[in-house]
Amino acid sequence: MSMDKKTVRKVAGLARIKMDDAELETMAPQLSKIIDWIEQLSEVNTDNVKPLANVVSIDLPLREDKITDGDCADKVLTNAPEEVQNFFVVSKIVE
Amino acid sequence: MAQLTKGKTGEWETVIGMEVHAQVIAESKLFSGASTKFGADPNSQVSLVDAAMPGMLPVLNEHVVEQAIKTGLGINSKVNRTSVFARKNYFYPDLPQGYQISQFDKPIVGEGKIEIDLKDGTVKEIGITRMHLEQDAGKSLHDQHPTKSYVDLNRSGCALMEIVSEPDIRGPEEAAAYISKLRMILRYLGTCDGNMDEGSMRADVNISVRKPGGELGTRAEIKNVNSVKAVQQSIDFEVARQIEILEDGGEIKQETRLWDPDKNETRSMRSKEEAHDYRYFPDPDLLPLELSQEQIDAIKKTLPELPDEKKHRFIGEFGLSAYDASVLIAERSRADYYETVAKDRDAKLAANWVINELLGILNKNDQDILDAPIKAEQLGGLISLISDNTISGKIAKDVFAEMYKTGNDAAAIVEEKGLKQVTDTDAIEAVIDEVIAENPDNVAAYQGGKDKLFGFFVGQVMKKSQGKANPAAVNELLKKKLS
Q: Which of B203, B248, B378, B417 has the greatest count of CB atoms below 10 A from its CB?
């Protein structure tokens, strides 16, 4: 599958990565190659093979419904670009 | 009955499907041990998992899984033995992970249906497409600063059930009945508190219009519809908007629109257009959730009697009208109260007192039945006193008012105030004789054919006896004496 510039621009937009035209030109063939390489997997016949979630047979671990965490606003806010009264403060996002 | 809307070019049919988000009642979040309690200080109920710090792993809350199974069974739906959590990718400041953990092609609950009750007394089935578990996002406040938004992640990671209906709903009344019934079922089950004010139940409404029986039209998705009233108003607005566009030769754009309760209108959310590419994939941090049939069966055994079953039982067992039964089952606490009052007593009389008197005064004072100053047993005591003719229905209303004020038992109030009904014929006759002696003119007029005066005599006798004379006895004796 080949990735054209338009597709790469869309993917970059969805990933919030800013790319200029020159970068898109460089990335498009590179991404195409990666996808082509991965697409080799589709050569394997998987008609009667069930999806495998894990190679060891374990069940999804569950926890009891107890309050064991939280109450650490200072830690949570450590990397906040800006904070006011324990709120994260970001550029206005309004509909 | 499908509700049709008249336009310039004829009638239009409205087609609606709803997605209801219901917060699961649980102490802690879907994948972390932080508290879910409403109204705490900003970011005080956030774990490093909810804040999406690197290396943090989600661990599924066992109780939430049970709550989801319970809900699935309560909405008559298939519980899937295998379900898979998937990542729904998008960027927003109140979503620290950059994705929401949700379920996509393998939800925990599959197809089912619920019954809704319409005003004309008919019952309609609304199909359920699916129900899945997912994380809630945080909350953004936009009105605290001119150029900044404030973000609180307390709600981030709380467990939600998203219940998706089939496009079986045909107008605002059915939509309101659907969300009300869903809310009632969840509250009976104890899986969601249904509190729309606090956002623990929210609806997205998908609306399209078409010529009756024609092909489905393009739909608009209305977000932020957070009360039963808003559901109805937003549908009214959106249907009118779509019909106007179509009749003017335009086309409906498939888009997300926001309901503005202040302006009573929906408006386009342009920013959401691009973001609709969610690139779902199975969450590599979580294995598929496997349930055993034994576990599902065990939970099925714990289900309470649900609203519809209770309604049918009240109609059959107590002889109530469908309307009275539907009022009494609206809340589980209300139905329990009624059953205590009605036990071994006149069930219809009990229903009248609970609905007309008790709920009347509770509504007026904005009180919940759980806080009613008159306990169910006490109201039952009052009903017994009416049934065995100790007091008349009229006196009972005064006793009721006194009970509401003081919280005392009916029998004690009747005793203390000397309100026992006089059924003694001699005593009533004596009062009647007095009334006749005092009103010779009216007696002559009555006997001359003015039948309407009978009521006057009854009134006088009741007044003289301070309302305590048995009305049936008064009627009977008066007729005899006046003839």
A: B203
